[in-house]
Amino acid sequence: MIFKKDNLKLGLVLGLIGPMVGLLVVYFIKYSTFSFGEFLSTFFNDRGLITSIGSLSLLANVVLFTIYVNTHRDTTAKGIFILTLIYGIGILILKVWL
């Protein structure tokens, strides 16, 4: 199974996809009354939402990272961590510049 592998490429892919899945989960739980386009527009234009929803979407990577560290697949966890940092920096840049 692919999730039992321990390599950096897998970690980078999981780290890239995790926050997107987290964002979808936040959308379906709290903002499903809006269209997804309206949700994204509001997300990128409201400083408060960038921080709160961005942080919640990164929780998906925290879960993935914890799973891979606890199962001693440290190379995959490293890839997830790298992408989490990149997403976090991106969220900070969006918050400061918008």
Structure, explained:
With 98 residues, this protein is an all-alpha fold. Helix content is 83%, strand content 0%. It has helices at 8-30, 36-45, 47-70, 74-97. α1 (8-30) packs across α3 (47-70) and α2 crosses α3. The longest helix is centred in the middle third of the chain and has 24 residues, at 47-70.
Describe the structure in brief:
The chain has helices spanning 8-30, 36-45, 47-70, 74-97.
Annotation keywords:
mainly alpha, elongated, 4 helices, 98 residues, single chain
Structural class, by secondary structure, is: mainly alpha
SS summary, helix count: 4
Portion of residues within helices:
over 70%
Q: What global shape is seen? A: elongated
**Poorly predicted parts:** none
How many structural domains can be distinguished in the coordinates? Answer: 1
In sequence order, what are the helices and strands, one letter per element? Answer: HHHH
Gyration radius from CA atoms, angstroms: 14 Å
Proportion of residues in β-strands:
under 5%
* Main sheet attributes: strand count, strand direction, barrel closure: none
Mean pLDDT: 90
Distance between the termini: 42 Å
In total, how many beta strands? 0
